[in-house]
Amino acid sequence: MFSKKISNISPSFTIGISTKVKELKNSGIDILNLSIGEPDFLTPENAKNAAIEAIHNNITKYDAAAGNKEFRKAIIDKLKKENNLEYDIDQIVISNGAKHAITNTLIALLNPEDEVIIPKPYWVSYPEMVKLTGGVPIFVDTKKENNFKLTKEELIKSITNKTKAIFITNPSNPTGAVYTKEELIEIANICVENKIFILADEIYERILYVDNFTSIASLSKDIYNYTITINGLSKSAAMTGWRLGYTACRKDLAKIISSIQGHLVSHPCTVSQAAGKEALISCTNDTKKMLEGYTKRRNLAIKMFNKIDEIDIIQPDGAFYIFMDISKIKKNVNFKDSFSIEVCNVLLDKFKLALVPGIAFGNDDFLRMSYAADINDVEEGINRIAKYIETVKK
C-alpha cells in the first residue's frame, strides 16, 4: 500500500532518545540529557534582531528558490575568507538545514541502486537519506587506532562500478576526529580518479580545537569539481531551530539542486535567512565565545575519562562529542540484541543519564556523549558513567 522505500527506513535513535527523555521529564523524573547534538548556547542577539527586523519590514514573501541573494553573497564571502574557496552566486543553494541540503544533493546525484560509501562510524541519518533517495549505502569499517578516519586503502577496497558518491564528515560526528590536509588529498584524489562525488559535510568546521582544518574543495580544481560542500549555522551559531543549511558546488549541479528545491519546498524561510545572513556577518565573536565554552568542557571530559580504566575515548579535535569505547565491560553485561542499547537503557533507567548507543552510528561497542551542556552537567554525567562502571565490575 505504501512506498517500498519506507520499509527499509530505520527510526532515528537520537530523536527516539530525545522523545523518551521528554516523556520522563514530563512525568516528573529529572534526567541529565547528554545525548542531543545541539548547542546549549542561545542564538546570538544580532541574528535574532535581524529576524525581528525582517518581520517588521515584511520580508515574508516568496524569494528565489536557491535562497536570498544577499545571504548567498555572505556565504560566498565566508567561504573565501575562511575556507580559501571561490564561488559565484549561482553555485550556492540555501536549504532548510544541512539535512535538507544533503537530501537535495542525493536526489540530484543518484539513480536507482547507485552506491554511496559511508565510513563507519557515521552520522545516524546518512544511510536513511541514501535509501530514501533510491541509493544503496555501502558501509566501510575504519580503525579505532586511526581515530576512525577513512584511509586510502579502505576507500579503494569499497569502490565498485556502481559507486557514485561518498560522505566525508569533517570534523566527525560522532568521534570529533579531524582529517589532516594530507589525509584528505589521498582520499579526494582517488574519488576524482573514479569520478566519485564527495559530500563534504563540514557543519562542525568552526568548532575546532586544532589548527589544521582543510575544506576538501580547496585542495585542487579537479577535487573542487567533484565536491559538494555542505554546511550551515545550526552548530556554529546555535541556530538549530532556524533550519538553515547550504551547498556549494559546481554550477551545473547547483542548478539542478536549486530546481529540485524549488519544486519541493519553494525556498527556505525568508525570516530565518535574514537571521542567518546577520550571523555570518556580525556574530563571529559569539561563535568564538561558544568555542571557548566547548573547549573547557572538552578538556574536563578528557581528563575525567582518562581516569576511568575501563573506558577508552577518541580524542575529539572538533565538534562537541566524546565517543567512548566501553567494550572492556562487555563480558559483564547481559544483553539480547545490542550491547550499547542495553548500557544506555541502564544508564537512563538507573542513573538518569541519557547518552546515544554506538549502534546508532554503526559501532555497538561505543557510546556517544555530548558536552554541549553546562560544565557542571558534563562533570556529573561522567561521574554517573563512572558509578555505572563500578557496578558492572562487581
TrEMBL record:
GO molecular function, one term: transaminase activity
PROSITE patterns: AA_TRANSFER_CLASS_1
Pfam families recorded: Aminotran_1_2 (PF00155)
Aminotransferase class I/classII large domain span: 30-385
Keyword line: Aminotransferase, Pyridoxal phosphate, Transferase
Stated family: Belongs to the class-I pyridoxal-phosphate-dependent aminotransferase family.
Name this polypeptide is given: Aminotransferase
Organism: Helicovermis profundi
Highest classification ranks of the organism: Bacteria, Bacillati, Bacillota, Clostridia, Helicovermis
